[in-house]
Amino acid sequence: MSYLNLSPKGPAISGAGRPLHFGVQDVVWGRCHTLFLRGELDLAASDYMEAVVFCLLLDTIEGITLDLSKLSFVDAAGLRALLAVRELCRHRGYAFSLTRPMGQVRRLFELTGVAGDLPIANTVQASRPPREQRRRLRALSTPQR
């Protein structure tokens, strides 16, 4: 398992003059990536999030899970980006799921009618490879003596 923290250079500033924070942490299990999104997925951050996913798709992967538990806000541009990522994964044959949307994010999915169309899981376990593959990964990462 490896970790990579990604975030845009410096905070963006909203129209109200307050800083907008958005970040992504990529946790990799074999060829399955879980992106932990945090902050506000809005117009200022949606292109960045899509770019991160597109970069992952250039590599050999099996699936992407977006963990939404730390997102405090998603606007129409953010929703469009999530749907675009889902379609791209579907088109290329990669597994795709969303996990743990909370509060405003879950409500947005319900109000827009996409909640039933999105593959939403309540745990991060959905992003892990099968148990036998995890054992193999652990064995590969064990130092040889």
User: Describe the biggest sheet?
Assistant: 6 strands, mixed
Overall geometry: globular
Written as H for each helix and E for each strand, in order along the chain, the element string is EEEEEHEHEHEH
The largest beta-sheet arranges its strands as: 1-4-5-6-7-8
Radius of gyration computed on alpha carbons = 16 Å
The level of helicity is 25-40%
Count of discrete alpha- or pi-helical segments spanning 4 or more residues: 4
The assembly state of the depicted protein chains is single chain
State the low-pLDDT regions, or none.
9-20, 132-145
Q: How many distinct beta strands?
A: 8
- Based on secondary structure, the structural category is alpha/beta
Average per-residue pLDDT, rounded, comes to 78
Distance between the termini: 21 Å
Strand residues, percent: 25-35%
